[in-house]
Amino acid sequence: MVPAHVPADRIVDFDLFNPPGVFQDYFASWKTLLDGPGLVWTTANGGHWIGARGDVVRSLWGDAERLSSECLAVTPGLGEVMEFIPLQSDGDDHKAFRMPVMKGFASRYIVALEPKVREVARELISDIEPRSECDFVADFAEILPLNIFLTLIDVPLEDRPRLRELGVQLTRPDGSMTVEQLKQAADDYLWPFIEQRMAQPGDDLFSRILSEPVNGREWTVDEARRMCRNLLFGGLDTVAAMIGMVALHLARHPEDQRDLRNSPELIPAAADELMRRYPTVAVSRNAIADIDIDGVTIRKGDLVYLPSVLHNLDPASFDAPEEVRFDRALTPLRHTTMGAGPHRCVGAGLARMEVIVFMQEWLGAMPEFRLHPDRPVTMKGGNVGACTALPLVW
Ligand code: HEM
What we know:
Elements: E1 11-12, H1 26-31, E2 39-42, E3 48-51, H2 54-61, E4 67-68, H3 78-82, H4 91-104, H5 107-128, E5 133-135, H6 136-141, H7 143-152, H8 161-171, H9 179-199, H10 205-210, H11 221-235, H12 237-252, H13 254-262, H14 267-277, E6 282-287, E7 291-293, E8 296-298, E9 303-307, H15 309-312, H16 348-365, E10 370-371, E11 378-380, E12 386-389, E13 391-393
Parallel strand pairs: 1-2, 3-9
Antiparallel strand pairs: 2-3, 4-6, 5-13, 6-9, 7-8, 10-13, 11-12
Helix pairs in contact: 5-7, 5-16, 8-9, 9-11, 12-16, 14-16
């Protein structure tokens, strides 16, 4: 049932988990909404608003006064099960939790981590290069962020394979595990490390965050679990999806590969531009007050969905938004790939460093690569869109 306050000309049927044509092209499937009004109501998934124009997406994303992050609502049951910290908190609570997490991700730590990221990337590439083909998603994109995450929390190498299966479920769920089972498996894996870091802090990320007070007091065990869970779930499929999109772009554009190989100093700016061009994260909010926007009213209690793709690829946000221009002179704050407002990604610096190091190492070690001529690229929708298969040859 469409609520009475939704005008008829705003109603669409758009399933964010399976938008039309997403299997072939995530971006093209979402972009169909840019042709209509700035805010639409989809009847799919129980009914909710979708911000469908750049200015609307951006302004609602920044409106933490009237839009709550507590429930992660459009995916049924996800919010109740995950209880992420800091993602699912608002206002002063959010500030209190976010502060220690931000300190843990301070740029000096990210800089110190770079050699490790490089080492992991090199190791993977040296395995892949002699094969002259790979499925980039399964062979690289899914593995790099998982290994980096385990490095962040200082998990010994021999313990890593245990999280590999779970990592695959997190980045490419095949339906064999429920959300509850996934959460439990992640908690079971992480708990011994969290417990140890709480008792005897080291200089890993978890220890650093957990030794920072929350509003002047210590973290509780429950809060520590929820925060670690947020970092695990927030930093795997997002990075895997981004690296996949960067590789897809480079495979389709050998001229960009050549430019970046000849002028590697362009890579940081190229990473910023590719991260703008290929955004695949979208978020849910719950209205806690009425909001008048784009000629309609979002009523208290309504759900609102905000896809960064409809901000970044709106021609009103960026000139010729689908063109990749390494000289756009962007600042990462201009686009919404990493969100906007008080919940903007705490891992943004780490993610950017991972993308840059991936590009430097991959382009430095691999010959020119292209899409496999006989095996298709496939994609998926959902809160984090991604390539599900990216067969490459060289
Ligand atoms: C390219 C990779 C990434 C993308 C595209 C991305 C995207 C985002 C976005 C859009 C948000 C805002 C969520 C909202 O407004 O509700 C966010 C928040 C967050 N991200 Fe990331 N992220 C990435 C990498 C990471 C990494 C590597 C980590 C940590 C290991 C991480 C941890 C988090 C956390 C904890 C939050 C919640 C922040 C808060 O609520 O204050 N992310 N991310």
